[in-house]
Amino acid sequence: xxxLPGHYLVAxxxxxxEKFNSENRLLSESREPERERKSFTAALLDEIYxxxxxxxxxxxxxxxxxxxxGDVFFAGTSIAPAPENNYDNVSPKLGVALxxxxxxxxxxxxxxxxxxxxxxxLFGDRGVVVGNSDLEPEEGxxxxxxxxxxxxxxxxxxxxxxxxxxxxFYTDSDNLIVFxxxxxxxxxxxxxxxxxxxxxxxxxAFTSASGISLSFxxxxxxxxxxxxxxxxxxxxxxxxxxxxxxxxxxxxxxxFSVFYELNYTGTTYLDRANFxxxxxxxxxxxxxxxxxxxxxxxxxxxxxxxxxxxxxxxAIGYPLPGRSFxxxxxxxxxx
Length: 335
Description:
By secondary structure, the protein is mainly beta. The protein contains 1 helix and 17 strands. β4 (84-101) and β5 (104-115) form a beta hairpin. The two termini are 37 Å apart.
C-alpha cells in the first residue's frame, strides 16, 4: 500500500546492553562487581509536506534499567551507587521548515530532551575522571531556528560553489551534567540544578573549480548557572567555552592534496565558582595526502598536528600533546 501523499512515516526501535568492569591490582580482592545498564528506545516520526512547508512531529520513548550492585573500592573519591535505578522518559519534538525559494530554507525545532549519565560520568576512568554514581539524568527544553543557503554560486570568483547556514539555539535544562575540577586536579561530573545555554552557530563550505576548498564551523554560546546556590547563580558553566572555531583549507594538485586546519577554543572555566580558567587558544595542523600512492585505492598521508607546539589542555584541564607527527596508509577496495 502506498503511503499517504505528502507523508513519510518512520518507526524505529533500538536496544543495548552496557557493562562496566573495574580492577584495582593493589588490592587482594581486585575486582569490583560488574555494573550493567540495559536501554530500550522506540521512536515515531511523521514528515508532512504541504506546499513549501514541511512538518516533522516525533515522539521518543526511552527506558533505562541500571544494575549497579556492590560498593566501590575508592570510597573517598566515588559515591557508592544505588543497587537499582530505572528511568522512563517520553520526549515530544516538532520540526518546521519553509522553502522560501530554490536553495533558501528557514527551519526550526522545539522539543523536550532527556539524557541519562553515561558510565564514565557515573564511575570514572580511574585516572583524571572520578566517578559520581549519585548523578541524576538531565532533561529540559531545546529550541533552534536557522537559515540555510544551499548551492550558492559566485561566478565572479571563478566558479565557486558552496553553502552557508546560521542557527540560533537555546536550551533550558534541569540537572545539567557538567565536569568540575577539584583541588586534586581530577574532574567529577556534577548536576547543576538549572541552567540555560544560548548561542549562534555558523557553518559553511566552499569549493572552486581550481581545486581549492574552504570549510569552517564557528559557535558562540553564552551559558548561565541558575541553580539555588548563591555563589554559583549567574556564573558561566564549566567546560563551555564562549568561542569555538574549526576551519580547513585544502588545495588539490592532481593526486596530491595539501591542507591546513585551525582549531580555536576560547577561555573556559574548570569550576562552577569561575575561579579556575582554562586557556586553550589555537592549534594549527597541516599535512599532505597522496591518492593511489602504491596502487589503486591506496592513500598515503603525512600530518603535523599542533605544529606551533602550543601547550594546550583539554576541557577538563588535562595537558594535550604538543607538536606531533603522523604517517597514515589507508586502502579501500572492492571485496
